[in-house]
Automatic annotation (TrEMBL):
One of its GO terms (molecular function) is 6-phosphofructokinase activity. GO terms for cellular component: cytoplasm. It is found in: Cytoplasm. It comes from the Bacteria. Signal peptide: none annotated. Its cofactor is Mg(2+). Non-allosteric. It comes from Bisbaumannia pacifica. Belongs to the phosphofructokinase type A (PFKA) family. PPi-dependent PFK group II subfamily. Clade 'B2' sub-subfamily. This is Pyrophosphate--fructose 6-phosphate 1-phosphotransferase. The active site is at 144 (proton acceptor).
């Protein structure tokens, strides 16, 4: 069979293990050099394809590619750039096909979340309309764990491990000082509409009275009076209160507790600042001394504390994406299937992008405690396997080693294109 080139790109917020997926894709392509020639990476995601800003991955050594498995961030640059509908922005899609034709690219691997799945699906549809033989496969990634069909999303397990660990460690700090100092600690975590990361914080405690004492989910409307009552109860009963709150916490009318009033490139409301907002309420209503923290980028970049399960799954979806493409599958995504819970076993199955793009998976009701401030045992059984195992990166001079790539650029063959 003829040999053609492949394109790989990263999209959206990066994770501690997205480069493990890149490693899986690239190493699988190299094992199939009878079918796949060069792998080109888009510099800064899909923007790299539109502007013909391509990286020649064949210039990287096997050792450098292997090192991606333990390197956080997006090695080739990611972006928040959503392709609009085909009818009104047809020129962008046609430009993609022109670039692919110019570089004999027949395999398209896009590594991202729900919006990226939508982009991958649209690229597949247009290539079919234009009669260009392109196989498009979406490689799942999102710390929010909100992709449908797949049991969990690569990137989430490591964030869950980091948040659960940080909650437990910070709680010990507060407990040791609460008699004469801080009474309340608030940890803000990511999660716009889905409370999966906040739920992971609840893994820090295993019994009655153990922190966190409250988890505030986007799936449960925020009731200030009820929250304050629970905070006060915890402080009086245990001497202190630890709270994990999702950035997407909102009132019954849908208004976010912390809304900057801006939107990102995907059209999502820009959030952040719910921790100080909530802490301010506690000070105003209860008068307790507080501290707050925002996990922010730390939670998604903490490769030093990555879940071994997460690393293995991230690599596997990259590898299987290539296998799906070579098997002639198109507009598909390798999804994780939970085969068994005890012992935990998983497998990869193909899922159609039409059932994934622009859809979100929220915390099911049976995972949220009846009072709305914690997780159920069913949720604990779901989350626990995802944070298991350690996959420490190699260290040098006391710091984790990361991949050092050449990022050699491919010579442009087409005129410039304005986004």
């Amino acid at each position: 069979m003829a040999t053609h080139n492949a394109f790989y790109a990263q999209s959206g917020g990066v994770t501690a293990v997205i480069n493990a997926s890149a490693c899986g894709v690239i190493e699988a392509c190299r094992r199939h050099d009878d079918r796949i020639g060069k792998v080109y990476a888009g510099h800064n995601g899909i923007i790299g394809a539109l502007t013909e800003d391509l990286i020649d991955v064949s210039q990287e050594s096997d050792e450098a590619i292997a090192a991606l498995r333990h390197t956080p961030g997006g090695a080739f640059g990611s972006c928040r750039y959503k392709l609009k509908d085909i009818e009104t922005h047809r020129a962008q899609y046609e430009r993609l096909i022109e670039v692919f034709k110019a570089h004999d690219i027949r395999y398209f691997f896009y590594n991202g979340g729900g919006d990226s799945a939508d982009t991958c699906l649209k690229v597949s549809q247009l290539s079919e309309k234009l009669g260009y033989p392109l196989t498009a496969i979406h490689v799942p990634k999102t710390v929010d764990n909100d992709l449908p069909i797949t049991d969990n999303s690569p990137g989430f397990g490591s964030v869950a491990k980091y948040i659960a660990t940080s909650t437990r460690e910070a709680a010990l700090d507060i407990a040791s000082m609460c008699a004469t100092s801080t009474k309340v600690f608030v940890l803000e975590v990511m999660g716009r509409h889905a409370g999966w990361i906040a739920a992971a914080g609840a893994l820090a405690g295993e019994g009655e009275g153990e922190p966190p004492h409250l988890v505030i989910f986007p799936e449960v409307a925020f009731d200030r009076e009820a929250v304050m009552a629970r905070v006060d109860e915890a402080v009086r009963k245990y001497g202190y209160c630890v709270i994990v709150v999702s950035e997407g916490a909102h009132y019954g009318d849908g208004t976010f507790l912390a809304d900057s009033g801006n939107t990102d490139a995907f059209g999502h409301r820009q959030l952040g600042g719910v921790a100080p907002t909530l802490a301010g309420m506690i000070k105003q209503d209860l008068g307790y001394k507080y501290h707050w923290a925002v996990a922010d980028y730390l939670q998604r970049a903490a490769r030093h504390l990555a879940s071994k399960t997460d690393v293995e799954q991230a690599y596997a979806v990259g590898k299987h994406a290539v296998e799906l493409a070579l098997a002639g599958k198109n507009a598909m995504m390798p999804a994780i299937k939970r085969v068994s819970e005890a012992p935990y076993e998983w497998a990869i199955e193909a899922a159609p992008l039409a059932e994934i793009a622009n859809r979100e998976k929220f915390m099911p009701k049976e995972f949220i405690r009846e009072d709305g401030f914690g997780i159920t045992e069913a949720c604990r059984r779901y989350l626990s396997p995802l944070i298991q195992g350690e996959d420490f990166p190699p260290f040098e001079n006391g710091l984790p080693k990361v991949a050092k790539l050449k990022l050699a650029k491919v010579e442009r063959r087409l005129p410039d294109f304005t986004l």
